[in-house]
Amino acid sequence: MASLNTFIDSEASLVQEAALAVPHSFDRCTHSEGAIRQPVHLCLSCAVPRGLCSACSVACHGNHEQIELFPKRAFTCDCPARVGDTDCALHKGTVAGNASNSYGQNFKAKFCRCHSTYDPKRERETMVQCVVCEDWYHESCLNLRTRPKERPPTPGHPVNESDDVADNDSNASNDLPPPLLSSSTYDSLICGACVLGNDTLQRWAGTRGVMMIVRKESDEECTTLIEDGGVDPRWKVLTHEDDGTEIVVVTEKEDQKRERDSDDHEVCGIEERATKKPRTEAVPSVIASSAMSLVPDVGSGTPCVTPPINFLAQKILIERLSQTSAGPAAKDTSISLLGEGDIFLTEGWRERWCRCPKCLPSLQKHPYLLEEEETYEPPEDPDSGLSLEELGMRALLNLPRDRAIEGIRAYNTMRDDLMAYLRPFAQEGRVVREEDVRDFFETKAQPATG
Predict the structure, then answer these.
(1) Which secondary structure element, helix H or strand E, spans residue 244, and what is its range?
(2) How many other CB atoms are found less than 10 A from the CB of residue 282?
(3) 144 in Cβ contact with 213 (< 8 Å)
(4) Element (H, E) at 360
(5) Which residue spans within 76-126 are E strands per DSSP?
(6) How far apart are the first and last CA of the chain?
(7) Rounded Cα gap, residues 323 and 337, in angstroms
(8) How far apart are the C-alpha atoms of 62 and 90, rounded to whole Å?
């Protein structure tokens, strides 16, 4: 049986946890701040789905069904714009709709390139946000793992102990095996669609610090038993070391012998020359010409520091561009894509961009690619971490003297009645049940008779 001290310590611990989880004050709508990058919540209960700031999600729509969309840039809170039955309690007056807001599929509760509805009760995967479009992608749709089974829909379903991963390398998808790329190995994601929309991102794909997930060259059918949510062995990480070049193999006839260079060597009786050339023979000419067109112009006076083009990465992007141009039918029938064109950027990626006149303009169109954006956070709540007793005393101090005295008298009366009610339990050694406490307050709530 838990003691009173244990109960008090538990309550104090809960107060501290709540203060750490929600340390902010939610008494001011951000509509007056204009279009800013801020955490956005989608209200599903309103007649027209609306994007809410953190304060309005609590103060105005606290009893509504919501989905947290996390930060969205250049967004103005929709709560003051009257489109439903709920008026904004934090903003005086009604405003017109926010025409500058961009409402992507997330505002229809759809996410990822698979356009699925997010259900936190059944979802097991970690989702990663694209830096550019700010949509969220499943790790499986990024080819970082296979699609795991959903959680059972029954509320309160116990977790199977065999599903737990004791390995310290497990990621945020806590009951799944580690993905092909763990979150600690990259800093940010840019989805393939956004890469195709920016020339500079295309040029850097597959270079140092800009990794991609690509299909392995072997066409052999995978016979390995894959763990639920595990890594598909048909995919690999493409880095700058795999640049789409190959060793040139030259076999000499007896009458065409030459003097061997010092850099040459022999492997399995086949003479190899230690030179490399772009593997243009293995790449269609349209891809080679498109890739070469991405080479920056260095005649402008400012040196370009863009790394050498990764031809395999360019082949993937051209393939994706061709598929996109072909329309939805091609997406349904094509199963041999080399990759989706997503890039995974390692730490410090903003400092590594080339800023020559050829590369800089496409980056300047998206300033967040050059400098990290500031994300608005609600001001901290000065009452965060205070217990209910401390909050009650603070409220009493703000009341007029006569009302404060009445409140203290009412509190003392209830305290004395509760002690008298609980005294027999202590004398007889009985456990106080929830029903007993409920009966006490229900009796106190009944009007006095006679």
Answers:
(1) none
(2) 13
(3) yes
(4) helix 360-364
(5) 110-111, 116-117
(6) 41
(7) 9
(8) 13
The pLDDT value recorded for residue 322 is 86
Q: Which two tokens stand for residue 38?
A: 């801020």
**Cα–Cα distance measured from residue 226 to residue 224, given in angstroms and rounded to the nearest whole number:** 6
pLDDT, tens digit, 9 for 90 and up, residues 13-41: 665 665 555 556 788 899 999 999 999 99
Q: Write the pLDDT tens digit of every residue in 131-171.
A: 999 999 999 999 999 999 887 655 444 343 333 333 333 34
Looking at the chain, the whole-number percentage of residues with pLDDT higher than 90 is 36
Beta 343-345 vs 110-111: how paired, if at all? unpaired
DSSP, collapsed to helix, strand or coil, labels residue 325 as helix
CA distances from 14 to 19, 281, 430 (A): 9, 66, 27
pTM of the predicted model, to two decimals? 0.69
> In sequence order, what DSSP letters do the residues of 166-211 get, joined into one string?
--TT--SSTTS---SS-GGG-SEEE-HHHHHT-HHHHHHTTSTTEE
In DSSP notation, 8-59 reads HHHHHHHHHHHHHH--B-----GGGG-SEEEEEEEESSSSS-EEE-HHHHHH
Q: What share of the chain in percent tops pLDDT 70? A: 68
b/e 421-439 (16+ beta carbons within 10 angstroms → b): beeeeeeeeeeeeeeeeee
Q: pLDDT tens, 161-176? A: 333 333 333 344 567 8
Please report which helix (H) or strand (E) contains residue 73, including its range.
strand 66-75
Per-residue pLDDT for 345 more than 90? Answer: yes
